[in-house]
Specification:
The protein is of the alpha+beta class. It contains 62 helices and 42 strands. The strands form 11 sheets. The protein has a 7-stranded antiparallel sheet with strand order 25-24-23-22-28-27-26. The protein starts with a strand and ends with a helix.
Length: about 1850
């Protein structure tokens, strides 16, 4: 029996002691006055009576009732039922505080005298004070409390004739039966009657309607998230204006958590004074009045549920894990069926007439039933994971969390993990784990109904039926006797609170109440104590657990076939069939990724263990260890229950004899796994084993069984589980004698103790490394390190704390020493022993004994290990594959010999046998070598299926961009090893794991050496410069003098010579003849040096000494002139080396030597092209306006429109843009004369006036010179306009260029000049950011085109992402092309290429239309160089030849100072800036153009890749250093003049290309069939761009194919007959996508035929002909054969088969009026206005044809024409041809006859070096005079001509000469 009420308290309003506005509660009376012994009076009760604070009221409020819950220190809950009513304030009571509170002016003097009638309200300023009746109880009978307090209030208000003392006394003495399901009628002696029913089972919570109300207020989703929040220990706060609602909501939430008990702070109603409790760090469920909502808002980690508003707010920083699927969705749908049954019928055509809707109470139980089912599903099978550690004297139970999660397949599930780790679950285990106890509904459900729930899953109606059945039981539990519940309690009348109360609530007589209480107590004393009769039973375990969701088969669906493979492999190993086993091993290792296979392995190995020992030979041991390692590699600390647990007994069973008396066990080879250093693993294992042994204690020996199956498989019928045994023992315990009880306790204790010793041994086996010097193992393992740093909390609160601490007394720092492995292990084991022994009740003496033993155990084990380690060293090492030595280049030396490594897959799928098919080449086993030039891996794949293939992957040391240490598993043994990941900008990745034989010091040395080679302190340390010179990288470099004339010596000599030759004021200049290709490589002989000098004819000495070129500069000059730039300027007709004014008319530009000493601009070449009219001294001043002094210089001139292309650095940020900006923002009309840089303006003016069309004196920009031929091209601007936004070209400029003027900025109508197709003379392309606020030039002579460009750092960042996309480094999360394309898009690399091409095409168009362009971006050496080079490549076919491209790169990139060393981070200084591939980006653009116009380039795509590889490889000197100035300083530029030092090594990449081209056509493009003067306009949209295969392809057979000497694979044996005399093999070969070099394995037809010819010639004993000669001969023959009628295909053998991919058609839309017929026909071929059909004409006519078609009479294009005889190529006859000399196109063309439209050949006059009289040769026309013969010598060959007579020959020679001199 229990008391219904413990205390009755009367609390009233009292003034606040500190006189503040609020009052406070005062306890007027409490009964009984002294505390009960078993239940002290709860403190602070007065706060809870008025949770919002004690305040006076101006009017009478109706009485209120609510129940607050207080929790005492023993976590017992006390229910405080509070009934509050209001009484008028008495004058005595009303102190100053009352006046303050209500702000009254005068005091109420009525007091209590009843002047007014009882029903009338008090006077207007009457105040009312609250008074509360409180009932404190430990029982939860809310209705009874409400009735009882209500009765007391009614007696008082209605003035019933009943003594209040009697009622209170009866209330306090009322007893309630405890036994479940009893009922009791009580009366308080006021003619009342109440029936109290107790629930059937105590453990089930009572919810009345609270759960249903909670769902009504918040809705399903909100309640579910509150449910999850409470379970995962988050803070939950309820808000409402009603206190009763708050306590109901909290009660409802707790009811949902059953069978778990909420064990944190639980305050359904929190008083205002205690609001700071909300900021407690622990979880809670608290209710607060909605008035305090503002305080709740400030809490960052509290989930707020607003009951009145129906919302739940979860803060951002809180993550509530949801229920695991499918439980979440199932629960959701069942809840909606319960709450809204009409939902199912809402769509029916004929809904049933009536729906039986459950009452609120019933609905409440149904909702609870849903959650009860949910818990049964979540915790199903939990009893199989309980470990009985002790049975007597008290059960000790542990829950094996990992086993539970693993077997449920929920290891990853966040929700369940948190629930199992929570306090509530710990309570659940200790309460419900007990095997012998009363059971309730949940136990039944989880044991017997699981199968039913699983079967019902997909049948909502059946689920609903089950829910209703459960709800019935829950309802029955709360209301066991529904019919009898008859209450009769008096209630006050309506509005009784408004009546004037007869008197205040009276003071009760304490003595009388106490007497009643004492009487009852005396009566009770005689009665026997009430013991609750509990019906205890064995708790049913239920079926063993199953996975919550059947695991998806996935990739490693363990089919029976896989398990079969594992079994076969193991049986082969134990039968000694090693070869068979070796074949199966890779398949087994793959299969072991699946869990079933790992289980299978453990079971199979168990079968081979006899008497706990299995001795193997070395090979068997090796196989077993490898398989165990593979099994364990994925073991997380959570998966330990499975595999690690099964293998633990095995690792101490398998062993091998090393020598007599020395045995090595498997554990010494499987220590590398994290699982061994996690304490939870050891605890779970320990408890599992203890349970097995305790069970064995109580079982008859017959029943004992193999320990392995404990906790694994369900136990068979007759074999009782440990829980059953324990239950039986607990039942018998009270019946046993004391001695017997003692004996059992002792037995159990010693069992635990012996297991602890056993585990101390086991742990030392797995934690002590074989080589005790290798403390690395311990340090790196997660668990031990963390435990070292953890406090000794585990130790100190154990019984033997002091003993344990004595081992921990050393300072923490000593652990770091290598020798302290033993100490760390001892501490780890001691902590473990402490924890488990304390938990399982081992006596303190035993525990002390253990602490003494542990160090001895560890020490003994270390000694055994020493012997094992020593012997294992002597073992013959396992046959590792022989190291394959890589082939080295001449001059390349090995720095570090091979370190054994595994090369791991790098995320590219092909090598690992991805979608491309083929076996997995990686991982491969081999070695990494470091040479002075490369990092090289050579090895063989570990997969035996791949056979004997050799895998090579290498990259130049200089290309290394990132190196990071990684920790990876070796592919074979699955050991965790140190590794390195090296990433290179040639798109190679070496991801290597060092073999265990490689010490960490060797790996460190490798890294250091690599770093030293990658970033030499000085550029002289690079491979290209150390190669062939005497000093090695180690020694300091010798003086620069050896390297050729240094800069200083040059300047010194200049001064000397100046003194000698001061008299001569002119310089001899001859036309510069570039040496022919054959001689270009060798240095010119000394006697040639004068010929290659600087002047063409003697000039009258009109030069002033200051501006003339001093003769002393001869030496520098002759060197400079030889540079590529000058050869090119000569070709373009841009240069004469003088400032003579006499030639200013004919030559607008001159070559200025002003920078010959690199004084004006360090990064420019020595000779620059500047306008003729600008003097050298002015250039210095102009240069100051530009960044890096890079002032505008001419770098190319269009042969047709004579427009020039200039380049410069960007303008300086400050006042220099004042050239364009108005100073101080003056009025728009102000002229630019006051600009700060007049020089600069003059300079640009000079450029403008140097263009033929704009040179009229007035400087106005009339378009008189705009010939009709150019009119057609004004309309090609559609593309730039359309994509203007994205490309950063402002639309305004686009439309301006398109000839459609925008309205002017100030809103005036467009300038009428715009309507003519008019162009500015000069466009300045600059950075948008620089040109902000720039004013247009008033005369429209130049115009600014602001564009947005990306900076070098963006290129760098983009390239990094591109590298990651192409070579990810680790396998993609989602295989397939999508992830690659996504990361490619993220890199924005193609967008940058699109912008470059777009800007370049814009410039090409401008130049083509006759306007000059100045490209002035950034510092003028990155993007400027890219744009300028692309423009020249697109505009001038010469640069699309091998020689031209070389010139282009030498001129624009090398001479104009692109910073190769800085951008490539070549030295230590550049390391921080990182690698920025500006040149590579340019090559990528060229590759894009090459793809679109394959017939326009003489070089092949391989040539671009070759340059892309070698510009970063530092193999050649060409791409070293940042400018010509630096190269001269190092003596690299002109060293060829001196004696040759290393003839065998090519120092220049061009030389190498040239040599190679002679031997093989690898750089030559067979499709090369250029059209005359073709300007290319490629598509630049990203959709038209392709990823360059340079980034993605790889050749693992031989490494990158760009070092040609290395790439020649071994010669293949002739396939005709096999050595064994068998039949000839087939000639088929397998070509693997990423292994073989495709061009070599499958050469194209032409290369194949050329090779075949060479082979046949060699067989015939003739010297083989050069491939180029053979190819030219074939082409010429083809050209002749194909023309019986004088017409035929254009000049290429392949053109018929090549798709006509010449132009990108339709890029530029025609806009504006079309020009003459000529321009239209031109356009139709140049794609401007053409339709698709015109491009498909059968025979495509070249541009020259069109010229001849329409313009036969126009003198402009045919400057001179006539018949000449021309000698054919070698051994060919003379033939008469019709020749046309064309000054405009600067070429000499010939046709078969006068009316022929098909041009047969072209001699470009730019290539002509000399025209000289010739001599007749064999086969010449007989009748002609000898003097009529003349020769034209070009850079390629000599043409022999013969005219009809001598005068016409003279005429021809003069015309050609005049053409040349014009240039």
């Amino acid at each position: 029996m229990a008391r219904l009420a413990d205390y009755f308290v009367l609390v009233a309003f009292g003034p606040h002691p500190r006189g503040s506005g609020e009052g406070q509660g005062q306890i007027l009376q409490r009964f009984p006055e002294k505390d009960w012994e078993d239940n002290p009076f709860p403190q602070g009760i007065e706060l809870f009576c008025q949770p919002s604070g004690w305040q006076l009221c101006p009017e009478r409020n109706p009485p209120t009732f609510f129940v607050a819950v207080l929790t005492d220190i023993n976590s017992e809950r006390h229910y405080c039922a509070c009934l509050t009513f209001w009484e008028p304030v008495e004058p005595t009571q009303e102190g100053p505080c009352a006046r303050d509170a209500a702000a009254r002016e005068e005091e109420a003097d009525e007091g209590g005298s009843g002047a007014l009638s009882p029903s009338a309200p008090g006077p207007p300023d009457q105040l009312f004070a609250p008074k509360t009746l409180v009932l404190v109880s430990r029982l939860d009978h809310v209705e009874v409390f409400r009735n009882s307090l209500g009765l007391i209030y009614t007696i008082h208000v209605e003035g019933l004739n009943v003594g209040l003392e009697n009622v209170v006394g009866n209330l306090l003495t009322c007893l309630i039966p405890l036994a479940g399901g009893s009922q009791r009628t009580i009366s308080l002696g006021a003619g009342d009657r109440q029936v109290i029913q107790t629930p059937l089972t105590d453990s089930l919570p009572i919810s009345r309607c609270s759960v249903a109300l909670l769902f009504r207020q918040l809705g399903i989703t909100n309640v579910l998230s509150l449910f999850c929040a409470a379970l995962t220990e988050h803070k939950v706060l309820f808000l409402s204006r009603s206190y009763q609602r708050l306590s109901d909501a909290c009660r409802g939430l707790l009811a949902l958590l059953f069978p778990l008990r909420y064990s944190f702070t639980y305050v359904p109603i929190l008083p205002a004074q205690l609001l700071e409790v909300l900021s407690t760090p622990t979880p809670f469920i608290i209710g607060v009045n909605a008035a305090f909502q503002a305080e709740a808002q400030e809490l960052l980690d509290v989930i707020v549920a607003d009951l009145d508003g129906g919302t739940v707010t979860v803060p951002e920083c809180v993550h509530i894990p949801p229920l695991p699927e499918p439980l979440q969705s199932q629960t959701h749908s069942i809840l909606s069926m319960v709450l809204d049954p009409e939902l199912e019928l809402a769509d029916l055509a004929f809904p049933p007439p009536t729906m039986s809707i459950s009452s609120l109470k019933m609905q409440d139980k149904e909702l609870r039933a849903v959650f009860l089912r949910l818990f049964a599903q979540l915790l199903q099978g939990y009893r199989w994971c309980l470990h009985m550690v002790r049975i007597h004297p008290e059960p000790v139970i542990r829950f094996h969390k990992a086993a539970f999660l693993g077997q449920r397949g929920l290891v990853e599930d966040d929700f369940l993990m948190k629930v199992l780790e929570g306090m509530a679950f710990a309570g659940f285990v200790s309460e419900r784990g007990v095997p012998y106890r009363p059971t309730d509904l949940f136990d039944e459900l989880v044991a017997h109904e699981v199968a039913r729930m699983r079967a019902d899953e997909n049948h909502p109606q059946r689920v609903l039926r089950h829910v209703k059945e459960l709800a019935e039981q829950l309802y029955k539990n709360e209301n066991p006797y529904p019919a009898v519940a008859m209450h009769k309690v008096q209630r006050p009348g309506e509005a009784s609170h408004l009546r004037r109360a007869p008197r205040p609530f009276p003071r009760l007589d304490e003595g009388m109440v106490q007497w009643i209480v004492d009487q009852a107590a005396a009566k009770m004393q005689g009665a026997p104590p009430a013991v609750k009769a509990e019906k205890r039973t064995t708790v049913p375990s239920g079926p063993p657990m199953t996975a919550i969701v059947e695991r998806s088969g996935g990739l490693h669906g363990n089919s029976a076939r896989r398990l079969e493979v594992v079994r076969n492999c193991i049986s082969y190993v134990f039968e000694g069939k090693m070869l068979e086993a070796k074949k199966l091993l890779p398949a087994v290792l793959r299969a072991l990724k699946g869990r079933a296979a790992r289980r299978c392995l453990a079971q199979e190995l168990h079968l081979h263990v006899q008497q706990n020992r299995a001795v193997l030979d070395h090979q068997q041991f090796d196989f077993v260890v490898r398989m165990m390692n593979c099994c364990l590699q994925d073991c997380t600390s959570l998966d330990e229950h499975g595999i690690a647990a099964a293998l633990l007994p095995l690792v101490t069973a398998f062993c091998r004899k090393l020598s007599p008396g020395v045995t090595q066990f498997a554990y010494s080879c499987v220590q590398e796994h994290v699982v061994w250093s996690t304490p939870q693993f050891w605890e779970a294992m320990f408890y599992g084993d203890v349970q097995t042994h305790i069970r064995a204690l109580y079982l008859e020996p017959a029943e004992d069984q193999d320990p392995f199956s404990v906790g694994e498989a369900p136990l068979q019928g007759d074999e009782r589980s440990a829980l059953d045994v324990a239950s039986e023992q607990r039942r018998l315990w009270p019946t046993l004698s004391r001695e017997k009880q003692q004996e059992l306790v002792q037995k159990e204790e010693s069992t635990v103790f012996s297991q602890a010793i056993h585990y101390a041994n086991r742990m030392s086996y797995l934690l002590l490394p074989l080589d005790s010097s290798k403390s690395r193992l311990l340090r790196e393992r997660a668990g031990l390190g963390e435990l070292e740093s953890a406090s000794n909390s585990l130790v100190t609160n154990s019984m033997a704390g002091s003993v344990a601490e004595s081992y921990d007394t050393e300072s923490g720092f000593e652990d770091a020493e290598a020798g302290d492995v033993a100490g760390a292990v001892v501490r780890f084991i001691n902590r473990f022993v402490d924890k488990v022994c304390t938990e399982s009740g081992v006596t303190s003496d035993h525990l002390k004994g253990l602490h003494v033993m542990v160090p001895d155990i560890v020490q003994m084990h270390i000694e055994t290990l020493e012997a094992v380690h020593r012997e294992s060293k002597r073992l013959p090492p396992i046959q590792k594959p022989k190291l394959l030595r890589p082939r080295l280049l001449p001059g390349e030396e090995c720095v570090l010999d091979g370190l054994r490594v595994y090369l791991l897959p790098d995320g590219r799928e092909e090598g690992a046998g991805g979608p491309g098919g083929g076996p997995a080449l990686l991982p491969a086993e081999g070695a990494v070598f470091l040479t002075t030039y490369r990092v090289i891996f050579t090895g063989m794949p570990t997969d035996p299926l791949v056979g004997e293939q050799v895998v090579v992957r290498s990259f130049p040391v200089a290309a290394l961009t990132k190196e990071k240490r990684i920790s990876v598993q070796t592919p074979v043994d699955q050991l965790l090893q140190d590794g390195l990941q090296l990433r290179s900008c040639t798109f190679q990745l070496l991801k290597m794991a060092f073999d265990e034989e490689v010490g960490s010091d060797s790996a460190e040395l490798f890294r250091k050496q690599l770093h030293k080679l990658r970033y030499p302190p000085d550029i002289r340390g690079t491979f290209a410069l150390t190669l062939g010179s005497a000093h090695t990288p180690g020694r300091p470099p010798r003086a620069t003098k050896d390297k050729g004339p240094s800069f200083r010596t040059l300047s010194r000599n200049l001064v000397k010579n100046a003194k000698k030759t001061i008299g001569r004021q002119y310089v001899t200049r001859k036309k510069y003849n570039p040496p022919s290709w054959e001689h270009r490589g060798q240095p010119s002989p000394e006697d040639q040096e004068d010929e290659i000098s600087v002047s063409e004819e003697l000039e009258p000495s009109t030069l002033t000494p200051s501006s003339a070129l001093k003769p002393s500069d001869r030496m520098t000059m002759s060197s400079l002139v030889e540079r590529a730039c000058c050869r090119d300027y000569q070709r373009l007709g841009l240069g004469t080396l003088s400032s003579s004014l006499s030639r200013a008319k004919s030559e607008p530009f001159r070559i200025s030597p002003v920078n010959r000493m690199y004084a004006i601009c360090r990064s420019y070449p020595g000779l620059l092209i500047v306008p003729q009219s600008i003097q050298d001294n002015a250039l210095q001043r102009v240069s100051r306006c530009y960044r890096q002094n890079r002032f505008p210089v001419v770098c190319w001139r269009s042969g047709r429109s004579k427009a020039v292309l200039l380049r410069s650095g960007g303008l300086h940020g400050k006042g220099v843009v004042g050239l364009f900006k108005a100073q101080n923002a003056p009025s728009p009309g102000q002229s630019q004369a006051d600009s700060s840089s007049l020089e600069q303006e003059k300079y640009l003016q000079a450029v403008v006036s140097s263009m033929p069309r704009y040179a009229d004196a007035s400087g106005r920009n009339t378009l008189s010179g705009f010939s009709s031929a150019h009119m057609g091209s004004h309309g090609k601007w559609g593309s730039v306009r359309a994509s203007g936004r994205s490309g950063g070209l402002s639309t305004d400029v686009g439309s301006r260029l398109a000839g459609v003027g925008p309205p002017q900025a100030n809103g005036a109508p467009p300038d009428p000049g715009f309507l003519r197709p008019q162009r500015a003379a000069l466009y300045i392309i600059g950075d948008k950011a620089q040109l902000k606020g720039v004013r247009p030039d008033p005369l429209q002579q130049w115009e600014l085109v602001p564009i947005e460009v990306f900076e070098a750092r963006q290129v760098k960042a983009s390239f990094k992402k591109l590298l990651k996309a192409c070579v990810p480094g680790c396998p993609a999360t989602e295989p397939g092309p999508a992830s690659f394309l996504r990361s490619l898009e993220d890199s924005e690399w193609l967008i940058q290429i699109h912008k470059l091409l777009q800007v370049s095409v814009l410039v090409v168009e401008l130049l083509d239309s006759g306007s000059s362009v100045l490209v002035s971006l950034e510092d003028g050496w990155d993007i400027t160089t890219q744009v300028v080079s692309l423009v020249q490549l697109l505009s001038d076919p010469f640069y699309r030849t091998l020689e031209g491209f070389r010139l282009l790169v030498e001129k624009e990139w090398l001479s104009f100072g692109h910073r190769f060393s800085h951008r490539g981070a070549h030295t230590l200084a550049g390391q921080s800036s990182g690698f920025t591939p500006v040149f590579l980006q340019f090559l990528d653009c060229v590759h894009q153009i090459h793809l679109q116009f394959p017939m326009e380039f003489e070089f092949s795509p391989f040539y671009l890749k070759f340059l892309g590889y070698h510009h970063v490889s530092r193999r050649f000197r060409t791409f070293l250093l940042d400018s010509d100035y630096e190269r001269i300083e190092l003596g690299l530029l002109y060293e060829e003049k001196g004696e040759r030092r290393a003839p065998q090594a090519c120092r220049s990449v061009w030389e190498y290309v040239e040599r190679l081209s002679k031997r093989t056509p690898v750089f030559y493009n067979y499709m090369y069939a250029p059209e005359d003067a073709e300007v290319l306009r490629p598509y630049s949209n990203v959709s038209n761009l392709k990823v360059w295969d340079f980034y993605t392809e790889e050749t693992l057979a031989e490494g990158p194919p760009y070092d040609w000497e290395l790439a020649q694979g071994p010669p293949e044996p002739p396939e005709e007959e096999r050595p064994d005399g068998g039949a000839p093999q087939s000639r088929r070969r397998v070509v693997w996508p990423c292994y073989d070099s495709r061009p070599r394995a499958q050469p194209d037809a032409i290369s194949r035929l050329l090779e075949e010819m060479q082979r046949l010639e060699t067989e015939l004993g003739r010297p083989p002909e050069r491939w180029k000669d053979a190819w030219d001969r074939v082409k010429a023959a083809q050209r002749l054969e194909g023309r019986p009628d004088g017409r035929g295909t254009p000049s290429s053998l392949l053109v018929s088969s090549v798709p006509h991919h010449r132009r990108s058609l339709g890029v530029y839309l025609q806009e504006g009026p079309v020009g003459s017929t000529l321009s239209l026909s031109l356009d139709s071929d140049q794609s401007s206005g053409s339709t698709a059909s015109s491009s498909r004409q059968a025979a495509r006519r070249s541009t020259s044809t069109l010229y001849s078609q329409f313009q036969t009479a126009e003198s402009e294009n045919r400057s001179y024409e006539g018949t000449l005889y021309k000698k054919g190529a070698f051994m060919k006859p003379w033939k008469a041809r019709w020749f046309v000399l064309d000054k405009t196109k600067h070429q000499l063309r010939y046709y078969d006859h006068r009316v022929d439209t098909e041009c047969k050949g072209v001699i470009d006059l730019a290539e002509v070096e000399a025209v000289a009289p010739g001599a007749p040769t064999m086969g010449a026309p007989k009748t002609v005079d000898e003097k009529a013969f003349f020769d034209v010598k070009t850079t390629r060959r000599v043409y022999n001509f013969c005219a009809q007579d001598v005068p016409s020959a003279q005429q021809w020679v003069d015309q050609i000469q005049s053409c040349l001199s014009d240039a």
